[in-house]
């Protein structure tokens, strides 16, 4: 009834290719942005920031990155945890070596470092594919975590082997360190997420994104029609690792403040981000957001229900959480392999016609 | 002989033993992959689950006792019996068979004709589910598994080899765990049984037919679903054997499920479709990582066993993507 494309005329090519062709969608998007930037920071408290909002924003960046690689370019990666660690340790090294550098620049630089590392580990993808490649990316995961554990240079010889982020500020507000306020941290991550999502959206519908999708759909055919597999695969690895590196840097500096590599960036982290894009929807920007939100919220919800409400011990709650997440993965793969994003798409299609059946 | 050579020999020997353990897990992967084209990530968790079930049944633990206690406020823990190992093993086999049937009914049946990578991800989901389920059923604390396998260093071998070193050198003989030797024997027996089974029984032949060509097997009247259940049963039993071996070695705990990850590079080396490949791949990885740790590990900080296998597999893949014994990958448009 109210959600219609009728009467929404496109008079220029620019209008025709915009991200949200429907007026309602566009306004919905602006309203969400406005709420996220102008309303949420005034109501957010410490619990919500550290339990829900920050993990959501940071995992959404990581999921975007992995979705570019796995969803758009079809290269399955289980090395996300390792690349997050590269981002985190890169951020730490830059922060401590150049104390005057703006934190925003530091985060982007750590993304660039991760992009370089990602390209290095992406080289085997030129020869191997499918789960062979997935196993090969495990090498990145285990090797990188070991490297950051064993080489003291990376953690500046600190006795505990941990890295902890010094205080850095922008416009007079502390962003990292113990004095950072919840709304400031939230806004910093949100800004980066919106920027990166915009980049991802425009990359994926441009020439580069199309070459990724061609490789994903059938690499030999893509090669025959003139897509350069070397360039598209390595660029996918680079862009994806850049996103993941930024997420890792934020994860360490803004969210946790102090990390130990084996705990924070283990193999489970890789699976978690992979699950996010499966549940959210492979090859969908929106899906990365929904998947991240879903897998951040479900554990919080389950924990609240079981521990705070029913009073069960925490370990049982953790076990049931594992079962629920594993079960959900299977259910999603069976019922809707394209994830929540596809459900959303179907719902919108239905809504366009409502209340008429055809 | 100088002690250095003997030490190296000892490292190689221990590497071979470790390799047998990896091969045991890899075997389960190969079986399922050949019969259904599914790369079963949950194999390691199956081993963990089987080992937990075995310990739980043997000690008469009440399943889900933690949950029941939490919900009803009871104090249930044990039935108060101790079953002999052989009965517990048989009951565990029954549990694994039920598990195989359930997996086929609830998961695989609905995912027929999906891409391999989707199936792979489904088994990751399955692994997560089983991890939570196993912990919920039997509790997550580290358990001691004892089915009466010998443990500790083999003194006979130590005494036998101590004389090999040159006179006057500080050498105390080779250290080899008895359990590792038993594991090697069990692995050999298992491989022989499996190959006899697949060569000389009707079911075994059907299994090989399905592995060869699904469609052709279907057309001569072999029920795919039945074969899948059987494969998962066998993989479950192999997982149990691996779980028992690893469990007696280092206790039944969460890290047991990580051996699945160790089996992946083994498979890549050996090729996903070859049983001898799994064994030889396991041996190469076992020996390689022990030798690397022994010779180069001390220079770069040690604990290289965590990643060596993957990096080796990575380099190997670049040169031979199908593994040592795998079928050649042919691509068509």
Structure description:
The complex is a heterodimer of chains A (358) and B (333). Chain A has helices spanning 13-16, 23-43, 46-72, 80-97, 103-122, 130-150, 182-204, 207-217, 219-224, 229-256, 261-264, 267-280, 285-309, 314-335, 339-353; strands at residues 163-164, 169-170, 173-174, 258-259. Chain A is mostly helical and 358 residues long. Chain A has a domain at 23-266. A two-stranded antiparallel sheet of chain A has the order 1-4. In chain A, strands 2-3 form a two-stranded antiparallel sheet. In chain A, a hairpin with a 2-residue loop joins strand 2 (169-170) and strand 3 (173-174). Chain A is globular. The mean pLDDT of chain A is 84. Chain B is mostly helical and 333 residues long. Chain B has a domain at 32-258. Chain B is 68% helix and 0% strand. Chain B contains 13 helices and no strands. Chain B has helices at residues 3-36, 43-59, 65-72, 85-106, 116-138, 155-162, 178-200, 202-212, 214-219, 224-250, 259-270, 275-295, 305-319. The longest helix of chain B is centred in the first third of the chain and has 34 residues, at 3-36. Chain B is globular, with a radius of gyration of 21 Å. The mean pLDDT of chain B is 79.
Please specify the SSE layout and strand pairing:
The complex is a heterodimer of chains A (358) and B (333).
Chain A: H1 13-16, H2 23-43, H3 46-72, H4 80-97, H5 103-122, H6 130-150, E1 163-164, E2 169-170, E3 173-174, H7 182-204, H8 207-217, H9 219-224, H10 229-256, E4 258-259, H11 261-264, H12 267-280, H13 285-309, H14 314-335, H15 339-353
Antiparallel strand pairs in A: 1-4, 2-3
Chain B: H1 3-36, H2 43-59, H3 65-72, H4 85-106, H5 116-138, H6 155-162, H7 178-200, H8 202-212, H9 214-219, H10 224-250, H11 259-270, H12 275-295, H13 305-319
